[in-house]
Design a protein that fits this description.
- The complex is a heterodimer.
- In chain A, about 0% of the residues lie in helices and about 50% in strands.
- Chain A is built from no helices and eleven strands.
- By secondary structure, chain B is an all-beta fold.
- Helix content of chain B is about 0%, strand content about 55%.
- In chain B, the strands form three sheets. In chain B, strands 2, 5, 6, 10, 11 and 12 form a six-stranded mixed sheet that branches. In chain B, strands 3-9-8-7 form a four-stranded antiparallel sheet, with no helix packed on it.
- The N and C termini of chain B lie far apart (about 40 Å).
- The chains are: A mainly beta, B mainly beta.
């Protein structure tokens, strides 16, 4: 399977705990995006990587959130000191950035529930 | 900045009836437009896209959409829906340059009634 994969698919945690999610993009894709989707809303952009460089972060990404893509391949999204408001679906997407239109392919998401 | 408005949060329709899901966008630059479908507990799947050229775009599963620049709309249509079309549909926009961050609408839940 050469699609975008995310792990875990579901995560339940207690308020105040730290969580980390992983995204494995399509292998030749140099661009990677994180989105957050809350109930009843469309996905909202969180951050974007071109290779290993994080080029934009949304204001939605508070100081408790950090994302990395250390080798320009997989990426991790960490949330420290989780709050109930962090409960959402976290989606990862990747694309091949080469000018013109570059379709983003989405993974299945990680659903986070903070108790 | 760009934005997308999906006025209908839910659309019930009987099986084999036609359906139209409405989408309006706002942007100060040239855009690409998309419709995505999301089935329960799954990620997003691209239904169709408008990049340039013909304003009538055909996608998968019998869906089509028409780009109307003067009305800044990109409505999604299907002439005859099936039970399996029950899902949430998201209209989305991105600028035609740069790294193409996608802005999504709030979604329309299509409920097909047998």
């Amino acid at each position: 399977d050469t699609g975008v994969s995310q792990d875990p698919r579901h995560k339940i945690t207690k308020r105040g705990q730290n969580v980390t999610f992983r995204c494995d993009p399509i292998s030749e894709h140099n661009r990677l995006y994180w989105y957050r989707q809350t109930l009843g809303q469309g996905p909202e952009f969180l951050t974007y990587f071109q290779n290993e460089a994080q080029l934009e972060k949304s204001r939605l990404l508070s100081d408790r959130f950090s994302a990395e893509r250390p080798k320009g391949s997989f990426s991790t999204l960490e949330i420290q000191r989780t709050e109930q408001g962090d409960s959402a679906m976290y989606l990862c997407a990747s694309s091949l950035g080469a000018g013109g239109y570059n379709e983003q392919f989405f993974g299945p998401g990680t659903r986070l529930t903070v108790l | 900045a760009q934005s997308v408005t999906q006025l209908d949060s839910q659309v019930p329709v009987f099986e084999e009836a036609p359906v139209e899901l409405r989408c309006n966008y706002s942007s100060s630059v040239s855009v690409y437009l998309f419709w995505y479908v999301q089935y329960p507990n799954q990620g997003l799947q691209l239904l169709l896209k408008y990049l340039s050229g013909s304003t009538l775009v055909k996608g998968i599963n019998g869906f089509e959409a028409e780009f109307n620049k003067s009305q800044t709309s990109f409505h999604l249509r299907k002439p005859s829906v099936h039970i399996s079309d029950t899902a949430e549909y998201f209209c989305a926009v991105t600028n035609s340059g740069g790294y193409q961050k996608v802005t999504f609408g709030t979604g329309t839940k299509l409920q097909v009634i047998p």
